[in-house]
Amino acid sequence: MKTSLESCFPSRAHGGFIAVIDNLELMRTSQNVRMLLDLMRDNVLAQLGIRWILCGAQGVIRSAAATPRLADRLAHPIDIKPIPDALMSEVISRRIDAYKITTNPVIPVGPGGFWYLYDVFNRNLRTALRFAEEFSIYLRGQFGTSHAKSEDLDLLEAWLAENADQFHDTADEWLGEKEWKVFDTLTSYGGTCRPCDDYQDFDYKSSEPMRSPIKALKEANLITYEPDELNKRRKIAAMTATGWLVAYARANYSPPVA
Question: What's the structural domain count of the chain?
Protein backbone atom coordinates (compact mmCIF):
# COMPACT_ATOMS: atom_id res chain seq x y z
CA MET A 1 0.00 0.00 0.00
CA LYS A 2 2.82 2.40 0.82
CA THR A 3 4.46 1.69 -2.54
CA SER A 4 1.21 2.29 -4.39
CA LEU A 5 0.50 5.53 -2.55
CA GLU A 6 3.98 6.88 -3.18
CA SER A 7 3.75 5.90 -6.84
CA CYS A 8 0.42 7.69 -7.30
CA PHE A 9 1.33 10.68 -5.13
CA PRO A 10 5.14 11.15 -5.26
CA SER A 11 4.96 14.43 -3.30
CA ARG A 12 2.48 16.27 -1.11
CA ALA A 13 1.90 18.66 -4.01
CA HIS A 14 0.31 15.78 -5.95
CA GLY A 15 -2.53 15.48 -3.40
CA GLY A 16 -3.78 12.24 -1.90
CA PHE A 17 -6.66 10.50 -0.17
CA ILE A 18 -8.42 12.17 2.74
CA ALA A 19 -8.61 9.95 5.82
CA VAL A 20 -10.33 10.68 9.14
CA ILE A 21 -9.51 9.59 12.68
CA ASP A 22 -12.55 10.50 14.75
CA ASN A 23 -13.61 10.39 18.40
CA LEU A 24 -10.11 10.70 19.83
CA GLU A 25 -11.66 11.98 23.06
CA LEU A 26 -12.59 8.35 23.78
CA MET A 27 -8.94 7.86 24.76
CA ARG A 28 -9.97 9.83 27.88
CA THR A 29 -6.95 12.13 28.29
CA SER A 30 -4.86 14.45 26.14
CA GLN A 31 -1.78 12.54 27.27
CA ASN A 32 -3.09 9.32 25.75
CA VAL A 33 -3.87 11.14 22.50
CA ARG A 34 -0.40 12.68 22.41
CA MET A 35 1.23 9.28 22.96
CA LEU A 36 -0.81 7.75 20.12
CA LEU A 37 -0.09 10.57 17.67
CA ASP A 38 3.58 10.54 18.63
CA LEU A 39 3.75 6.86 17.65
CA MET A 40 2.05 7.72 14.33
CA ARG A 41 4.17 10.80 13.62
CA ASP A 42 6.94 9.35 11.47
CA ASN A 43 4.98 6.65 9.64
CA VAL A 44 1.21 7.07 9.43
CA LEU A 45 1.01 10.86 9.63
CA ALA A 46 4.01 11.28 7.31
CA GLN A 47 2.78 8.83 4.66
CA LEU A 48 2.66 10.32 1.17
CA GLY A 49 -0.73 10.08 -0.50
CA ILE A 50 -2.80 10.53 2.65
CA ARG A 51 -4.05 13.76 4.21
CA TRP A 52 -5.33 13.21 7.71
CA ILE A 53 -8.20 14.90 9.50
CA LEU A 54 -8.09 14.33 13.26
CA CYS A 55 -11.26 14.92 15.27
CA GLY A 56 -11.82 14.95 19.00
CA ALA A 57 -13.90 16.76 21.57
CA GLN A 58 -12.91 18.20 24.95
CA GLY A 59 -9.80 19.94 23.61
CA VAL A 60 -7.70 16.77 23.16
CA ILE A 61 -6.53 17.72 19.65
CA ARG A 62 -5.59 21.25 20.64
CA SER A 63 -3.47 19.96 23.49
CA ALA A 64 -1.74 17.39 21.27
CA ALA A 65 -1.08 19.89 18.47
CA ALA A 66 0.63 22.22 20.94
CA THR A 67 3.56 19.86 21.53
CA PRO A 68 6.79 20.75 19.63
CA ARG A 69 7.22 17.22 18.24
CA LEU A 70 3.80 17.25 16.56
CA ALA A 71 3.77 20.91 15.53
CA ASP A 72 5.28 20.14 12.11
CA ARG A 73 2.75 17.39 11.43
CA LEU A 74 -0.51 18.99 12.59
CA ALA A 75 -2.04 22.24 11.42
CA HIS A 76 -3.58 24.66 13.90
CA PRO A 77 -6.83 23.09 15.17
CA ILE A 78 -10.18 24.42 13.97
CA ASP A 79 -12.95 24.71 16.54
CA ILE A 80 -16.26 23.27 15.29
CA LYS A 81 -19.17 24.67 17.27
CA PRO A 82 -22.23 22.54 18.12
CA ILE A 83 -25.21 22.70 15.80
CA PRO A 84 -27.58 25.41 17.10
CA ASP A 85 -30.72 23.96 18.64
CA ALA A 86 -32.88 26.04 16.29
CA LEU A 87 -31.38 24.25 13.28
CA MET A 88 -31.48 20.68 14.58
CA SER A 89 -34.83 19.70 13.05
CA GLU A 90 -33.77 21.16 9.70
CA VAL A 91 -30.48 19.25 9.86
CA ILE A 92 -32.34 15.97 10.38
CA SER A 93 -34.74 16.80 7.53
CA ARG A 94 -31.81 17.41 5.20
CA ARG A 95 -30.10 14.25 6.38
CA ILE A 96 -33.21 12.24 5.54
CA ASP A 97 -33.45 13.91 2.13
CA ALA A 98 -29.77 13.31 1.37
CA TYR A 99 -29.76 9.61 2.27
CA LYS A 100 -33.17 8.49 0.99
CA ILE A 101 -33.13 5.92 -1.82
CA THR A 102 -36.86 6.04 -2.61
CA THR A 103 -39.24 8.94 -3.18
CA ASN A 104 -41.27 8.26 -0.03
CA PRO A 105 -39.06 6.40 2.44
CA VAL A 106 -40.30 5.00 5.73
CA ILE A 107 -39.01 7.33 8.44
CA PRO A 108 -39.01 5.66 11.89
CA VAL A 109 -37.73 8.82 13.59
CA GLY A 110 -38.56 12.08 11.86
CA PRO A 111 -37.39 15.60 12.79
CA GLY A 112 -39.93 15.88 15.62
CA GLY A 113 -39.05 12.53 17.13
CA PHE A 114 -35.35 13.18 16.83
CA TRP A 115 -35.71 16.53 18.59
CA TYR A 116 -37.49 14.74 21.44
CA LEU A 117 -34.57 12.32 21.85
CA TYR A 118 -32.08 15.17 21.51
CA ASP A 119 -33.87 17.03 24.30
CA VAL A 120 -34.07 14.00 26.60
CA PHE A 121 -30.34 13.35 26.28
CA ASN A 122 -29.32 16.92 27.05
CA ARG A 123 -28.55 17.98 23.48
CA ASN A 124 -26.08 15.17 22.83
CA LEU A 125 -26.17 14.50 19.10
CA ARG A 126 -24.30 11.19 19.18
CA THR A 127 -26.51 9.74 21.90
CA ALA A 128 -29.69 10.90 20.16
CA LEU A 129 -28.55 9.25 16.91
CA ARG A 130 -27.79 6.04 18.80
CA PHE A 131 -31.25 5.85 20.37
CA ALA A 132 -32.91 6.79 17.08
CA GLU A 133 -31.16 3.79 15.54
CA GLU A 134 -32.18 1.49 18.40
CA PHE A 135 -35.80 2.61 18.10
CA SER A 136 -35.70 2.05 14.33
CA ILE A 137 -34.48 -1.52 14.86
CA TYR A 138 -37.21 -2.07 17.46
CA LEU A 139 -39.86 -0.68 15.12
CA ARG A 140 -38.77 -2.93 12.28
CA GLY A 141 -38.87 -5.97 14.55
CA GLN A 142 -42.37 -5.15 15.76
CA PHE A 143 -44.01 -3.87 12.59
CA GLY A 144 -41.71 -4.55 9.62
CA THR A 145 -40.68 -1.93 7.09
CA SER A 146 -44.17 -0.66 6.22
CA HIS A 147 -44.95 1.00 9.55
CA ALA A 148 -44.01 4.69 9.43
CA LYS A 149 -44.24 6.50 12.75
CA SER A 150 -42.12 9.56 12.10
CA GLU A 151 -44.77 12.10 13.15
CA ASP A 152 -46.39 10.01 15.88
CA LEU A 153 -44.44 10.40 19.11
CA ASP A 154 -46.63 8.09 21.19
CA LEU A 155 -44.80 4.90 20.24
CA LEU A 156 -41.36 6.50 20.60
CA GLU A 157 -42.26 7.90 24.02
CA ALA A 158 -43.65 4.56 25.19
CA TRP A 159 -40.52 2.72 24.02
CA LEU A 160 -38.22 5.27 25.65
CA ALA A 161 -40.20 5.18 28.91
CA GLU A 162 -39.99 1.40 29.04
CA ASN A 163 -36.22 1.50 28.60
CA ALA A 164 -35.92 4.29 31.16
CA ASP A 165 -37.89 2.29 33.72
CA GLN A 166 -35.65 -0.74 33.27
CA PHE A 167 -32.47 1.27 33.85
CA HIS A 168 -34.02 3.16 36.76
CA ASP A 169 -35.18 -0.02 38.49
CA THR A 170 -31.72 -1.56 38.11
CA ALA A 171 -30.02 1.55 39.51
CA ASP A 172 -32.53 1.76 42.38
CA GLU A 173 -31.29 -1.59 43.66
CA TRP A 174 -27.83 -0.04 44.13
CA LEU A 175 -28.64 3.47 45.25
CA GLY A 176 -30.24 5.00 48.31
CA GLU A 177 -31.74 8.35 49.22
CA LYS A 178 -28.35 10.05 49.60
CA GLU A 179 -27.18 8.98 46.14
CA TRP A 180 -30.46 9.91 44.47
CA LYS A 181 -30.34 13.37 46.04
CA VAL A 182 -26.90 13.98 44.53
CA PHE A 183 -28.09 12.58 41.21
CA ASP A 184 -31.20 14.80 41.09
CA THR A 185 -29.18 17.88 42.01
CA LEU A 186 -26.62 17.06 39.33
CA THR A 187 -29.46 16.75 36.81
CA SER A 188 -30.81 20.18 37.77
CA TYR A 189 -27.33 21.68 37.27
CA GLY A 190 -27.14 20.46 33.68
CA GLY A 191 -25.40 17.14 34.27
CA THR A 192 -21.86 18.21 35.21
CA CYS A 193 -20.11 19.43 38.33
CA ARG A 194 -16.71 19.58 40.02
CA PRO A 195 -17.34 18.11 43.49
CA CYS A 196 -14.21 19.74 44.92
CA ASP A 197 -15.62 23.17 44.03
CA ASP A 198 -19.39 22.66 43.92
CA TYR A 199 -20.05 20.62 47.06
CA GLN A 200 -22.05 23.43 48.71
CA ASP A 201 -24.59 23.27 45.88
CA PHE A 202 -25.23 19.68 46.98
CA ASP A 203 -25.71 20.68 50.65
CA TYR A 204 -22.33 19.38 51.79
CA LYS A 205 -19.89 21.25 54.03
CA SER A 206 -16.90 19.80 52.17
CA SER A 207 -16.19 17.62 49.16
CA GLU A 208 -15.17 14.61 51.27
CA PRO A 209 -18.72 13.37 52.08
CA MET A 210 -19.65 13.60 48.40
CA ARG A 211 -17.14 10.95 47.40
CA SER A 212 -19.30 8.04 48.52
CA PRO A 213 -22.46 8.95 46.52
CA ILE A 214 -20.34 9.98 43.53
CA LYS A 215 -18.58 6.61 43.61
CA ALA A 216 -21.92 4.78 43.86
CA LEU A 217 -23.37 6.74 40.93
CA LYS A 218 -20.28 5.97 38.85
CA GLU A 219 -20.51 2.25 39.66
CA ALA A 220 -24.17 2.35 38.58
CA ASN A 221 -23.01 3.83 35.24
CA LEU A 222 -25.08 6.96 35.75
CA ILE A 223 -22.07 9.30 35.74
CA THR A 224 -18.45 9.41 34.74
CA TYR A 225 -15.87 10.83 37.14
CA GLU A 226 -12.69 11.78 35.32
CA PRO A 227 -9.84 14.29 35.70
CA ASP A 228 -10.51 17.77 34.34
CA GLU A 229 -8.44 18.33 31.17
CA LEU A 230 -7.75 21.90 32.28
CA ASN A 231 -6.80 21.03 35.84
CA LYS A 232 -5.67 17.47 36.58
CA ARG A 233 -6.04 18.05 40.32
CA ARG A 234 -9.79 18.40 39.88
CA LYS A 235 -12.28 15.80 38.69
CA ILE A 236 -15.51 16.35 36.78
CA ALA A 237 -18.66 14.34 37.38
CA ALA A 238 -20.75 14.11 34.21
CA MET A 239 -24.00 12.31 33.42
CA THR A 240 -23.80 9.36 31.05
CA ALA A 241 -26.42 8.50 28.42
CA THR A 242 -27.83 5.98 30.90
CA GLY A 243 -27.91 8.71 33.52
CA TRP A 244 -29.99 10.99 31.32
CA LEU A 245 -32.35 8.11 30.56
CA VAL A 246 -32.82 7.49 34.29
CA ALA A 247 -33.29 11.24 34.83
CA TYR A 248 -36.02 11.10 32.19
CA ALA A 249 -37.82 8.42 34.21
CA ARG A 250 -37.41 10.42 37.44
CA ALA A 251 -38.82 13.53 35.70
CA ASN A 252 -42.07 11.66 34.98
CA TYR A 253 -41.06 10.93 31.39
CA SER A 254 -40.29 14.44 30.24
CA PRO A 255 -36.94 15.94 29.24
CA PRO A 256 -35.28 16.71 32.60
CA VAL A 257 -33.49 19.86 31.41
CA ALA A 258 -35.33 22.68 29.63
Answer: 3
